[in-house]
Every structure is written in C-alpha cells, then in structure tokens.
Design brief:
Helix content: 40-55%
Order of helices and strands: EHEHHHEHEHEEHHEH
Distance between the termini: 31 Å
Number of strands: 7
Shape: globular
CATH class of the domain at 8-125 and 186-221: Alpha Beta
CATH superfamily of the domain at 8-125 and 186-221: P-loop containing nucleotide triphosphate hydrolases
CATH architecture of the domain at 8-125 and 186-221: 3-Layer(aba) Sandwich
CATH topology of the domain at 8-125 and 186-221: Rossmann fold
Bound molecules: adenosine monophosphate
Strand content: 15-25%
Number of helices: 9
Structural class: alpha/beta
Radius of gyration: 17 Å
Largest sheet: 5 strands, parallel
Length: about 220
Amino acid sequence: MLILEIRMKIVILLGAPGSGKGTIAGRLVAQDSAFRHVSSGDLLRDAVNRHTPFGHRAEGAMKLGELVSDDVIAEMIKDYMARVEGECTLLLDGFPRTVVQAKILDQLIECSDAELQAAVLMDVADEILFNRIAGRRVCPQCGAGYHVETIRPVKDGICDVCGTELVTRKDDNTETVKNRLTVYREQTVPLIDFYSERDALMRIDGVGAIDDIVERVKQVLA
Ligand code: AMP
C-alpha cells in the first residue's frame, strides 16, 4: 500500500451561521500563513457571481437558506484540495454541513496527503447569533467580514483591505436566517456526535472578544 507523507492538516470549523467561523479563520490566516481559509459559502457565492454551471445549480437553494446539493459542494472542495500547494492547514468553514458530506470528506482525506486534525465547535447562544448576523457586512470583492458595532472598518461602509463598498449578504435577511438556523439544527448538529465519537471534537466558547476566541482556538489546535 502506498503511504503518503502528510502535507495538509484539516481543521473543521463547526458552528451555526453567525458563530464566527469566518471571522476566526480570517484572523488565523492573518497571523500564520500556514493556515488557508476555505469557506464553502464564499466558493459558492463566487461561482454564482461568475455564472458558472455550479453557480447556476447553487443559486436557488442559497437564496432560500437551503443546502446546495452534496455533489456540487463536494466537487468544489475536491477541486480546491487538489490545487493547494505546500504544507498547510486548511480551515474548513461551512463544509462539511451534513453527515453525508462528512463521509465525503473522509474519502477526500483518504485519497490525498491530508489528515483530520480536529473539528472545532464554536458555541454561541441563539440570541447572539441573530444580533451578529443582523449587523454583519461583507466586502463583495475580497470577502472580508465586518459588523456595524463590533468589527467596524476604519472608514464607514468601506473595506479596510481593498477599499470596496461593503454590502449585506443577500441571505442575511430575517426569514432566510431563520431557515438557515433550522437547517443547521436538523442537518449540521448531527456532526457534533459524528466527530465526538471519533475523539476529534473540540468545543470552545465562541462568545467574547475576538482576540480571546482566536486564542481559545489556537490553544485547542496546539
Ligand atoms: P455560509 O456562507 O457558510 O453561511 O453559506 C451560505 C449558503 O451557501 C448556505 O446557506 C447554503 O445555501 C450554501 N452552502 C454553503 N456551504 C454549504 C455546504 N457545505 N453544503 C451545502 N450548502 C452550502
């Protein structure tokens, strides 16, 4: 049997919409270039904006806050993993989102020079999730995330990184958010048991100052 040397570590960031997965991943990448932030939502939004065939298949479900079909997302992640160069740790944000996707990820890991390091669950109460999502703003150009109260850009409404005007995500409206939280509970929460049974689950308190949360994540990954 061919034994590949491990080149890629996989860290799954688990948590509800608004639990801070993207923000924390962004901070970790800024601090250490060995981290790569892989946001399935960003990959899909990019495909929708570029009108690719995957984008066409994803757009309807995304508008409603439903999940995009497993084969679309699996193909995009597989493609991303195949293109990654050098030794690194992939921070998976938003994938896997179902047990079926977790099994697909197992297969992708088995067929590559990667290993699962941990699934980090960001624990955040529901009322805080709603507040975070309501105030969330994103840069449509570079994907940087902000919040009207807690993560303000230097110049109001303008991205610090690339100077583009910030927007509210189309699926951050109240109705869609409610549905995304329901979908999370029904389809993603079972992953907590899935990774717990493999002794891979690390639970952290996702509330507090961002720097403190980043430190908590770094501690469980050390
Ligand atoms: P996010 O940016 O992670 O909140 O994802 C935004 C939307 O993209 C979700 O509400 C889904 O419609 C879709 N999406 C993102 N990741 C996945 C995934 N792993 N499986 C299915 N749909 C996804």
